[in-house]
Amino acid sequence: SSLLTMTLIHEAERIGIRDDIETALSYAAWFHLDQMRANRAGFPKTPYIEHPLRNTIRIIRWGCEDRDTLVASIFHDVVEDCAGRIVEMIDYTGDEDDMIVALRWIEFTFGAGVADIVSRVTNPVLPPGLSVEEKNASYLNHFVERVAGHAKALIVKCADLADNAGSLFHHIGLVAVTSLFRRATKYEPVLVAASDALVVHSRNRTISKDVASNALMAMQSALETMKPILEGDSK
Asked: Does residue 119 register a pLDDT over 70?
């Protein structure tokens, strides 16, 4: 976590947005404080904050230095997973949904652009009782409707997919095959849709050619590493 943090701060200093990135990191680290993330290949669990740290550094490595995109990447899971902590922090006692309050706080603190991106990459709360197929369809539909057409949200989501889907192969032999297959089938159509969207944005010049190309390679790499899982060769 420390090395990732220092790497990101170093890059933010180079770009000229160190203050914004440090402020965002300090909030996000506290919001995710009690959350852990299962690490890869049997290593111990790690603080969840490492996930948005990796994502944000990855976006910079792709060539994107846009302030709103990078701050939104740091906050990309906050509304979905930590809205209650934001409500607690600001001592809100009204009747509005925690997720709405959290988005308003992000807008007030970091601007409408950041809040819009975070809103787009935040998965909606689903009704209970849905089948796995229905959940996967909702995940894909949300991506197509809210993310694919928005260049900055697409970059944030692609970094998230690269970290999540692109690391599944590390679990082969350590996690139940059925669990891996379920996750891979969730990600596969979204990776394909993300790849298609990157091509369109590159052609339209809404995402630079270099950034789109690097993100596209990450999507294709994730698809390639998931093949053994999807084809049933992961035992």
From this structure: yes
